[in-house]
C-alpha cells in the first residue's frame, strides 16, 4: 500500500463509539484492507501527562475485537487497579483509564517523544492489535475541541468526562487549526476512494473537527467518490452522547434533516432511521438521496445489515 | 512538626530494599513519628515519561506494609496488566511497573507538573498510605547516578534494570550535583537528631549519592548526634544487589571494613555481621566502635533484633 491510498477503497470519517460500531459491521462485509478510517482527534487530551486519543482508541479497539461492548470506551474485561490506587493517593480519577488501556497511552507517549507522528503510532498500535484497516488521525498536528459553556470555555474532556456534559453549550471551536494539515494519506485516500462514508457520529464534535482541518472538506467536495452519511440522530435524539443537546443549544435542527444540512455541500446520500422517514423528502430537497433504514446497531446482525444498506446505496446507479 | 525537624529524633539515610527492611524493624521499636528517613534519589528515572523514584517508593511501600516481601520492589499482590499490554504493542517492558505501582508515578508526575516539590509529593504519598515517619528525598533537585561501563556511560536504570547489572563498572558519577541542595528539612534533621543511622544499603550508589549532595556530609561531620552504620556487606558479599561487584571494580575493599572506611569521617559506630567479626579490630582502628550482630534480616524478629542492637549501641555510654 502506498501513501497514495487504496484506489477504489472506502474512506470512513469517524468519531467514537457510533462510528466504531458501524465500522465493525462494515469490515465484516468488505476486505478491511480496502478501508481507510479518518478519525477525529479533537477530543484528545493529556491525562496524567499521557497522550490519550479516545476516538482513535475506540475505533482501533473495536476493529481489533477488544472493545468493551457496553461502555463504549476502553477494553473489554480491563481492570482498574491503577485508577483505584490513584484514588487512594488522592489523585484525579475522573478520566477512566483501565490498566490495559493505559499501555496504549504509555506506548503512544514513548513513540511521540521519540519523534514518531501520531499517524505512525496509530498504525503501529493498530497493526500490533491485528487491525487490517488503515486507521489515520485526521491530523498529526494538535487540534483541540474547546466548548464554550456557562462556566467559561472548557477543554473537551473537562466538559465531557469530568463534568459529564452537564453544562449548556453556547459554542464550540477547534484550537490549533491554523497549523493543522490533514495527516499524510488522508487527502489522497479521499481523492482516490471508491466511496466515502460519514459514520453516525456527533456532527459537531466528532465529524466537525475532521471537516475543519484545512483541506479535508474541500477534498470531499471535489472527489469523484460518492459520499454517504448515516444519521446519528434518531427520533430527535442522539443514539449516544450529547449531540442532540449540543445541536439544540447551537440553534441547529435536532433531526436527521438537521444533520444532512450540515453536510449538504458534499453529500450524495443520507441514511436516516425508519422512525424519521417523514424527513426523507426534506433531505432530498437538499440535493441528495435519502435512504431509510434501521440504523439502531443493537447487535452484530443489525450492524452488518446497516453497513450493507449503505454499501448498496453507494453502488446503486445514480 | 516544624521544618526544623524533630529534636532528639532519629535520622536514617536509606537506599532501597536493605534500608527498607531495617526501617521496618526500627519503626516497630520507636514511635515512627520520631523518624526522618533521607532517601537516595540518584536512581530515579523517567520511565515511559513518568517520574519513577525506586528507593523512595520501596521505603514508603515497606513502611506502609504494602511492599512485596520477596521482590524488593513494587507492591505486594500487584498485577501487571498494563505491562503485559505494553508488551503486546511492542513497547519497552524492561522496567517492571505493576498496575497499582503505576498510580504512584502518575500521581507524582501530576503533582510535579503542578509545581509541587519531590519532598511535598513524597510526603503526600506517604501520608495517604498511612506512613507516620517523615520520608524525605535527599534533594528536590535532580541528581542522577551514571555508571561508567565497558559499554560507555549508562544511566543507572539502564545499567541496573535493563542490563541487569551485568556490565563491569569502572566508575560512578552523580550528575546534577552542582545545582542540588539537600531537600528542606534534611540538614535541620541531622543537626537536631538524637542519633543517625546509615542503613545497610549500597555505599556507592545508594548512600553515595546522599553523601554527595552538597552540605549533607558536612552536616554529618558536625552534628552532635551519634552516627551508626550497618554493613551491607556480609562475608565479602552484598546481601542484595551489585554492591560487592561495584566496590571490587572500583578498587575498594569488599568487606565490612571497606564500607566502614568509606564513612570513617563521620561514623561513631559500625555494626557488622557475626561472620565478619574478625574485622572488628580493624574497624575500631578507624576510630569508631565496632558492634558485632546478626545482620541478616530474614524475618521480622531478626529485623527488630538488629534495630534494637543498633539503638542500644547508639545509646550506650561512650
Head-to-tail CA distance between termini of chain A: 30 Å
Helical content class of chain A: 25-40%
Rg of chain A computed from alpha carbons, rounded to a whole number of angstroms = 19 Å
Biggest β-sheet of chain A: count, sense, barrel?
7 strands, parallel
Kindly identify the CATH topology of chain A. Rossmann fold
**How many alpha or pi helices of chain A?**
13
- CATH class assignment of chain A: Alpha Beta
Oligomer, anyone? homodimer
CATH architectural type of chain A: 3-Layer(aba) Sandwich
Structural domains of chain A: how many: 1
Q: Describe the strand arrangement of the main beta sheet of chain A, using strand numbers.
A: 5-2-1-9-10-13-14
> How many strands of chain A?
14
Summarize the largest interface: chains and residue counts: A-B, 31 and 31 residues
User: Helix and strand succession of chain A?
Assistant: EHEEEHHHHEEEHEHEHHEEEHHEHEH
Properties at a glance:
seven-stranded parallel β-sheet, homodimer, Rossmann fold, alpha/beta, disordered N terminus, three-stranded antiparallel β-sheet, 318 residues
How would you explain this protein's 3D organization?
Two copies of one chain form a homodimer. With 318 residues, chain A is of the alpha/beta class. Chain A has one domain: 3-Layer(aba) Sandwich (Rossmann fold), CATH 3.40.50.10680. Chain A has 13 helices and 14 strands. In chain A, the strands form four sheets. In chain A, strands 5-2-1-9-10-13-14 form a seven-stranded parallel beta sheet, sandwiched between helices. In chain A, strand 1, helix 1 and strand 2 form a beta-alpha-beta unit. The longest helix of chain A is centred in the C-terminal third of the chain and has 16 residues. The radius of gyration of chain A is 19 Å and the shape is globular. At the A-B interface, helix 3, helix 4 and helix 5 of A face helix 3, helix 4 and helix 5 of B.
